[in-house]
């Protein structure tokens, strides 16, 4: 047995080193300055053009690729053990998103700080993300809960980061390419900084290998064997976080390497954390350097973010892991709950309508500097009134989507954002903009519809045989969302001059909406509200679990298919009108459930009103807060809804 393991280890290391050497040689020949492999091998040893190019630009890029790939892979291997979650990595747990968020904030508000201490800035963001994951996921570290928590945290940081990039376009203009992950190095400064940190943390990971072997047996067994579990976990978290932060501070947030490399190493038959960490470092380097080589082969002479290439391979890989993880777990029977003493609709509806009326009056009358009640004036009637009405109707749509998807998946964290529909809709719109740069913004909804339909199609195909197991659908959504987010960031870089208008749409904005948008939104709401209402009785039955629902004669598979179709259709309509606004579909149903209970018909009505109220309020606040500048509604909604959502994550059992 030992000899067999040694043979597998030897084969893996040999193959890894061979591939890395071959890819490195190819990598050094790529770029605008053209020369062949024989010219490289002969000219690099003598002073001249080739040596200058290699040592000044290409070798630093290759070196940082090897270091960054290895660091991300080791970080992923450690995180997967710590969280007992095969989907864990610096990207899926929000470490990369948190680090990038802090870098963007420091670049805008404290430019001297980022320039002087990029690693410290990224480290603070990664630490904050990890603290949120650990604090909100709970001591049990249930894999699905951890994955969903990381997804929500990534969504939060990504939405705020995108809006900041939009509001401060000049200050963050240089961060678009870097934010997609790039190995471009103009000198050796990045390598000189990152190499000692990464190598030191790699050695620390090797020293922690044996304690992690014991920890993987379970905390109780590890404690009984005399291990200080808390110290081991704290040290391991520190290693994983520092590796991720050091990488982000130099090459930006690169996803999927930390997810793929450890899994592929384990699939090769490598066992024991010492071997897994060593092999993960080698294969992480192979994957990242290979991704950079592939990107430069696809589009020679133009810089393609390496994050694009890792997403291209890593997205399908994450889908496979999510599918395998969900199949190995028990079917979830999570109760959605609700208050045991619901408030009567006769009371709650008038209160909500009164609050909505009050906010609407303020939104129509105040422009940030002066009040006016002459609503028939052209500037108010043609711009402000349709904008407020569109906000309300879209808020209703998003809230209804949340009710349907949470009911179908029996998951209180489900909505279009978590299922990947919003993310893929944004990616579809951006892809359309990349293919047709001169296309008017009015056609972006067409791309959004295609992207959302693709997300739904993937879910239907992968979950059909498993009767749309809620856990499987949720995990597939996480994978789709991660892929869509990475693709969107890449397309933003590719769109170049169209970035500003695209970011407005991607951040979720009700700016510039007219009466045509009101008519379009009202028509589609009138069409889709009836299927949503019809589904409420079936969703009430699903609340009691699949076995009980089947015993009562409900066709569970058919119900889930139609509910997913209706929910995705409504969310796609909302995205096509105002862009990718998240959190409304998460927050509104929870507030409503605490008021009217778990029955879906009153829940649908109350959630719709609350969703409309949230988006109208967000639009009003975003319009007046820094008037005459406009803050995208998506950012304001995130700022309003996140505190409640984090509270919900902490309290949810």
Describe the structure in your own words.
The protein is mainly alpha-helical and 653 residues long. It contains 28 helices and no strands. The chain has helices at 2-29, 37-43, 49-83, 95-109, 111-116, 118-137, 143-167, 169-172, 175-179, 189-207, 209-215, 219-224, 229-251, 257-267, 273-298, 306-327, 345-365, 378-409, 421-435, 444-463, 470-495, 499-507, 515-542, 546-551, 556-578, 584-596, 600-624, 633-651. Helix 19 packs across helix 20. The radius of gyration is 25 Å and the shape is globular. The mean pLDDT is 79. Keywords: Cell membrane, Membrane, Transmembrane, Transmembrane helix, Transport. This is Iron complex transport system permease protein.
Total beta strands: 0
Main sheet properties: none
| Helical stretch tally | 28
Please state the structural category. Answer: mainly alpha
Mean pLDDT, to the nearest integer, reads: 79
- Coarse shape: globular
Radius of gyration: 25 Å
Order of SSEs: HHHHHHHHHHHHHHHHHHHHHHHHHHHH
- Low-pLDDT residue spans: none
Measured between the Cα atoms of the first and last residue, the distance is: 43 Å
The proportion of residues forming helix, as a percent range, comes to over 70%
Strand content: under 5%
Keywords: Cell membrane, Membrane, Transmembrane, Transmembrane helix, Transport
Pfam families: FecCD
Membrane topology: Multi-pass membrane protein
Protein name: Iron complex transport system permease protein
């Amino acid at each position: 047995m030992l000899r067999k393991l040694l043979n597998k280890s030897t084969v893996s290391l040999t193959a890894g080193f061979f591939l890395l050497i071959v890819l490195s040689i190819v990598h050094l020949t790529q770029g605008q300055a053209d020369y062949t492999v024989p010219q490289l091998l002969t000219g690099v040893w003598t002073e001249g053009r080739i040596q200058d190019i290699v040592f000044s630009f290409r070798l630093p890029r290759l070196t940082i690729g090897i270091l960054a790939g290895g660091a991300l892979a080791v970080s992923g291997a450690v995180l997967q053990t710590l969280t007992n979650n095969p989907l864990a990595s610096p990207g899926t747990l929000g470490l990369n998103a948190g680090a990038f968020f802090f870098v963007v904030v420091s670049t805008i508000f404290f430019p001297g700080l980022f320039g002087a201490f990029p690693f410290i800035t990224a480290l603070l963001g990664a630490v904050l993300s990890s603290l949120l994951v650990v604090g909100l996921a709970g001591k049990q570290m249930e894999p699905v809960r951890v994955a969903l928590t990381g997804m929500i945290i990534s969504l939060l940081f990504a939405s705020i980061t995108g809006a900041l990039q939009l509001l401060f376009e000049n200050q963050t203009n240089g961060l678009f390419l870097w934010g997609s992950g790039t190995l471009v190095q103009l000198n050796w400064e990045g390598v000189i900084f990152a190499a000692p940190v990464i190598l030191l943390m790699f050695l620390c990971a090797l020293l922690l290998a044996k304690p992690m072997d014991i920890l993987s047996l379970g905390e109780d067994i590890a404690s009984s064997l005399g291990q200080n579990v808390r110290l081991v976990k704290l040290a391991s978290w520190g290693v994983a976080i520092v590796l991720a932060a050091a990488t982000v501070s130099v090459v930006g947030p690169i996803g999927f390497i930390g997810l793929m490399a450890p899994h592929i190493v384990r699939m090769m038959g490598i066992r024991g954390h010492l071997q897994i960490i060593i092999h993960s470092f080698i294969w992480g380097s192979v994957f990242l350097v290979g991704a950079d080589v592939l990107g430069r082969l696809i589009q020679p002479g133009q810089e393609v973010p390496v994050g694009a290439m890792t997403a291209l391979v890593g997205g399908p890989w994450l889908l496979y892991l999510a599918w395998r993880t969900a199949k190995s777990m028990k079917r979830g029977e999570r109760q959605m709950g609700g208050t045991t003493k619901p408030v009567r609709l006769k009371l709650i509806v008038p209160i909500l309508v009164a609050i909505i009326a009050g906010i609407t009056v303020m939104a129509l009358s105040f422009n940030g500097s002066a009040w006016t009640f002459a609503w028939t004036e052209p500037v108010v009637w043609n711009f402000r009134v349709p904008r407020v009405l569109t906000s309300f109707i879209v808020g209703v749509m998003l809230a209804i989507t949340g009710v349907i998807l949470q009911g179908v998946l029996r998951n209180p964290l489900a909505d279009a954002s978590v299922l990947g529909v919003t993310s893929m809709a944004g990616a579809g719109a951006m892809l359309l903009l990349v293919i047709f740069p001169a296309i008017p913004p009015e056609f972006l909804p067409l791309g959004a519809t295609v992207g959302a339909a693709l997300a739904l199609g993937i879910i239907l195909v992968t979950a059909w045989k498993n009767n749309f197991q809620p856990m499987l659908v949720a995990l597939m959504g996480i994978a789709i969302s991660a892929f869509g987010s990475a693709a969107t960031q890449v397309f933003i870089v590719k769109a170049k001059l169209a970035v500003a208008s695209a970011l407005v749409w991607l951040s979720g904005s009700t700016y510039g909406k007219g009466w045509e948008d009101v008519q379009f939104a009202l028509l589609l709401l009138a069409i889709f509200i009836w299927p949503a209402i019809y589904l409420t009785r079936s969703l009430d039955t699903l609340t009691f679990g699949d076995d009980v629902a089947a015993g009562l004669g409900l066709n569970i598979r058919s119900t889930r298919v139609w509910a997913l179709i209706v929910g995705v259709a409504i969310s796609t309509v909302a995205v096509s009108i105002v862009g990718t606004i998240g959190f409304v579909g998460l927050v509104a149903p929870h507030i409503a459930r605490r008021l009217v209970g778990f029955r879906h018909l009153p829940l649908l009505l109350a959630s719709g009103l609350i969703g409309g109220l949230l988006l109208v309020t967000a639009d009003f606040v975003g319009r007046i807060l820094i008037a005459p500048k406009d803050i995208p509604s998506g950012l304001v909604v995130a700022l309003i809804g996140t505190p409640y959502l984090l509270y919900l994550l902490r309290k949810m059992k």
